[in-house]
Amino acid sequence: MSKQLLHSHNSDVIVAALNHRAFTVVSSSSSDQTSQNAIVYELMAPSSKSSSAAETKSDGNDKSGDEPNDDNEIQAVCCTKIGSCMWFAVSRGVKTLSLYSIPAESNTEGGSEETTKLLYPSAIYNLPKRARSLAFTSVDNLQVIVAGDLSGDAIAFPVPTDAPSSTSNENEAVKAMSTPKRLLLGHTASMLTGLNVVISDQQQQFILTADRDEKVRISYFPETHIIHGYLLGHSSFISCMDAISNERSLCLTASGDGTSRLWDYQTSKEVGMLPVVIKKSAQEENGDDMEEVDDEGKPTPEEKDEMEENDVEGEEEDDFDEDFDDEEEEESFDHHTVAVPLSVALHPDAKFAAVARDEIQSIDIHPIPPVAEKSQLSTSFQLSNFVSLHKKQTLECKSQPLAVRFTSDSSVLVLAREPEYLLHFNTTDGASFNDISQSSCLTKALCKVAQSQKITMPATTLERNDYGECTLQKKEDRKELTAQQNTEKGGLHWNDPGRKVTAKKAQARKRHRKKEQQKADGEKQTNEEASN
Fold first, then answer.
1. Is there a contact between 260 and 355 (Cβ–Cβ < 8 Å)?
2. Nearest to residue 325, comparing CAs of 300, 297, 289, 283?
3. Model's pTM, two decimal places?
4. Which of 26, 33, 322, 418 gives the lowest tally of CB atoms within 10 Å of its CB?
């Protein structure tokens, strides 16, 4: 699943995970972007054995996230404002949940972009499993942090709002707390891949939990034993999810099947789908024609046309399955691969949807059609009339984007690999987005720290095994399919136009092999007759 590596509060506070380290950037309340100042806080690991700023500086060559089980690797981050304090939560691979707090009023006093303040935890909780989804919420005036872990459980931990603010002194950091936790719900024999606590348009509070088994469960909160409904439609694991508390009860999910779908979680119905993106094949990246098959033993376009004209009539379908070579099949289908979304985001006012995809160095911004007036059609009926959200704008990135997030002022923040680290886009006309990373105080402050300490970001937020397969993909789905299975299950995505091209190439290669075999058999028979 994708990790929750970027979160924000309003437009002036963000928390980001840069591989093994977590930083929060707090800007001043000035409305002038050019005159704002920002302070960077590093949210230190709860143990002195964890990687620190000093270690990274001395080494200068931090390892990338190639080792997914590294104890120091950040799994999820989250932030919110509670009372007069800003609270931050960080989940790490060592199975700990650390809470930090700073005063919210004078956030930029006594600091500058030249220095990075160190914050040690105000509270530490031990987790049964790694948590990759975090959300702050409240239950009967009790502030809690909800963690969704890899065992399929959602667990609530109290936020000690009466505790002192986080300290810059490591010796004063609190130890792991034994405060009682509460198990909210569990997905049997699955993993949680996303979690959101929202308030619907009917003022009902829900907790949305996505899992590895292609679904999203909608439960009442805090009465989580009561299930409101399910969001069903994906054919593979849910990789990421976002939801908003708005007049429009919208949820955006993305899946390993390559699709990103928009839902109304009040009615538990799908109301739209974003276009699927196909990765470029090696031939396309090298400028080669997809139609050419010029490898040794494979037909040229001229030979292909000739073979189609001389095709043997009455050919049985079963011969195709026997003659189809597995290696050629895999190579052929590898030319067309859907890009798995790494992160999705919804605009707070339901105006836009954003998607960042694996191995695609850009993010897509899609407009969400406005609701009809009350005198006209209802929201659900209005949205049900479209099945796809057409791309509004593609925002290019120089490096792989890892996470995307909308802020309250309609800006888009993108966490990316080095050397960019953080990109900032805003809109002035409510339609097109412009890159303001060079002038954004948030971007400049975080990038300056990351570049000076040579932090190396992971290549992706999807965990993969030694064979490059996504670990969330079920084992039976990862097995190599036969030609017949690929035909039945659609080896490519259902709406991929390249399916006919790859099938046509496979048939041409099969006819060519059969023709060559007949030619060889004829020559062998002639030689035998001549020798006799």
1. yes
2. 297
3. 0.75
4. 322
